[in-house]
From TrEMBL:
Pathway: Cofactor biosynthesis; riboflavin biosynthesis. NCBIfam families: PRK14059.1-1, PRK14059.1-2, PRK14059.1-4. Keywords: NADP, Oxidoreductase. The lineage of its organism: Bacteria, Bacillati, Actinomycetota, Actinomycetes, Mycobacteriales. Residues 31-242 form the Bacterial bifunctional deaminase-reductase C-terminal domain. PANTHER family: 2,5-DIAMINO-6-RIBOSYLAMINO-4(3H)-PYRIMIDINONE 5'-PHOSPHATE REDUCTASE, DIHYDROFOLATE REDUCTASE FAMILY PROTEIN (AFU_ORTHOLOGUE AFUA_8G06820). The keyword NADP applies. This is Pyrimidine reductase family protein. InterPro entries: DHFR-like_dom_sf, RibDG_C, Riboflavin_Biosynth_HTPR.
């Protein structure tokens, strides 16, 4: 396996990262990419937060993936634990997005069955773009009343009115032209996408750490799911981090992998 070395500051040129992580062309439906980080022994968090595992290189890849996305999807628990705010971009990133025909800043879309998100969260007050709240039929009206103009609340239920149906959620995003999906977790949300066979791509940063203890994995769920992946590239840096990009073996929903 050939590894490409990231630069001394932890990143390749922005244009190089954009080429390496480009989404498929001509998408008509959502392409779901997940980005996660784990220790060598599989721990998804340190001191309860995934961000505590990162490095300069990880942050560079994280920023590049966000720059390429139409929408950033996250679970309510992760949004609160990681203290999410809206995506922040400088002039260069905004220009690159304009040239690709994208909005200057992607929205954050939160998956939450209950709709219970604190009105005072940074997600609603440190953002240029109104967040999307993808919730259940049972919680939608109450969530709209409670959040008001702070968010756009969407009913993403399928046959079960007290839950969020992921295919319905993706259809709602696609209707808004938000087809380049970046899923930032957490593990439970990623497990739901995996179980529903809706995960097209997985980008994993492997931190050169052994955590031990009780940190969970990057994907959790009630049962085992086997989903074959193909390694598209492997990057590393001077600190020993690995940046792995996997795409699922079969091409989903009629779109071609890059």
């Amino acid at each position: 396996m050939h590894f490409t070395l990231l630069g001394r500051d932890g990143d390749l040129a922005a244009t190089d990262l954009a080429q390496r992580y480009g989404y498929p062309d001509g998408l008509q439906s959502c392409w779901v990419r997940a980005n996660m980080i784990a220790s060598v022994d599989g721990g998804a968090t340190s001191d309860g937060k995934s961000g505590d595992l990162g490095s300069d290189g990880d942050r560079a890849v994280f920023a590049a993936l966000r720059e390429l996305a139409d929408v950033v999807v996250v679970g309510a628990s992760t949004a609160q634990v990681e203290n999410y705010s809206g995506v922040q971009f400088g002039a260069a990133e905004r220009l690159a997005r304009q040239r690709r025909g994208q909005a200057e800043v992607p929205p954050i879309a939160v998956l939450t069955r209950s709709g219970q998100i604190d009105r005072d969260a940074k997600l609603f007050h440190r953002t240029e773009v109104t967040p999307l709240i993808l919730t259940s039929s049972a919680a939608a009206d109450d969530t709209r009343q409670r959040l008001g103009a702070l968010a756009e609340v969407l009913d993403a239920s399928g046959e079960q009115p007290d839950s969020v149906d992921l295919r319905t959620a993706l259809d709602l995003l696609a209707e808004r032209g938000l087809v380049r999906v970046l899923n930032e977790g957490g593990p439970g949300i990623l497990g739901l996408f995996t179980e529903a066979d809706l995960l097209d791509e997985l980008c994993v940063t492997v931190a050169p750490l052994v955590l031990g203890g009780k940190p969970g994995r990057i994907v959790t769920g009630p049962g085992e799911v086997r989903s074959g992946l193909q390694l598209r590239h492997a990057l590393t840096d001077e600190k020993g981090y690995l940046y792995l990009r996997y795409v699922r073996e079969r091409t989903p929903r009629g779109d071609e992998a890059p």
